Amino acid sequence: MKTAKSKKKKQKQESYAIEVKNLTKYFKLYYDKPNTLKERLVFWNKSKVEKKVVLKNINLKIKKGETVALIGVNGSGKSTLLKMMSKIIYPNEGKIEINGKLTSLLELGAGFHPDFTGRENIYFNASIFGLTAAEIDARVLDIINFSELGELIDTPVRTYSSGMYMRLAFSVAINVDAEILLIDEILAVGDQHFQDKCFAKLRELKDSGKTIVIVSHSLGYVQKLCDRAVWIYNGEVKMDGKTEKVIEEYLKVCG
C-alpha cells in the first residue's frame, strides 16, 4: 500500500517533463591510431587515447509546460545535452528521465529519405513519432499547408534546399501531438517569413501547455519565447534562471 509520502513524491516527479540527474558525457579521441595490419602489429600499444569531457555533472529539472532555452558559445555542450534528452546519444554517467511524448528537431532533414518525396517522408517521419496511418491521413494536408511546399511536396527531398527541409521537418514535428518539443537552432534556416511563422506556432504551442526546450544563438527569439534560460559554459551549468537575467550575465562574458 502506498503511503501519502510516496504518493506526494510521485506527484512531484510527474510534474517534471525532463529530469537530468548527475549527467556526465565524454568522448574518446584516438591519435596515431594504426590503420594497416602491419601498423597494428608493430604499434599495437602506441596509439594515444584522450578523453574529452563535454558535459560535467549536469543537474536540471524542467517542469511540464515550461519553455526553456539552452544558451552558450559553440562547443559548450548544449546541443549534446539536447541529443541526450532525445536519446540519440547516451550519458556515460547519470541519467535523464522523460515524462511525456517527445518530438525533436535536432538535425536538418534527419530521418528523411532523399529518394522519396516530401509526402512519402511525412508518412515515414510521423510513423516514427508514433502516429498511425489513419492519424497521418487526417493531418497530412495541415502538414503540407503549413510547410508551404505546394506541388514540390511530391518531388524527392534530395532536390530540396535547406530551407525547404526545415519547413517540412518543422511542419511534421508540430503535428504529432507531442507533449515535449526539443529544437536545436533549426529556426535559423529559411526566410524571415517562415521563421516568423514558426515562432508564432511555438508561441501557440507554449500557450497550450507544451514543454519546449530550445537551443539558439538568437537571443532576441529566446527573450520573446522563453521564461527560463540555462547557460552552459565549458560543459557545466553556469547560470539557470529568468531569461533576461541569464542573457544579461551571458552577454557580459560572451557578448
Structure report:
This protein is of the alpha/beta class and 255 residues long. It has a single domain, classed as Rossmann fold. Helices cover 38% and strands 27% of the residues. The chain is globular. The N and C termini lie far apart (55 Å).
Compose a concise summary of this entry:
The protein has 255 residues and is of the alpha/beta class.
Give the tags.
alpha/beta; 255 residues; 38% helix; Rossmann fold; six-stranded mixed β-sheet; 9 helices
Q: What's the helix and strand layout?
A:
Layout: H1 4-14, E1 16-31, H2 37-42, E2 48-63, E3 67-71, H3 78-85, E4 93-98, E5 102-105, H4 118-128, H5 133-147, H6 162-173, E6 180-184, H7 192-207, E7 211-215, H8 219-225, E8 228-233, E9 236-242, H9 243-254
Parallel strand pairs: 3-7, 3-8, 5-6, 6-7
Antiparallel strand pairs: 1-2, 1-4, 8-9
Helix pairs in contact: 4-5, 4-6, 5-6
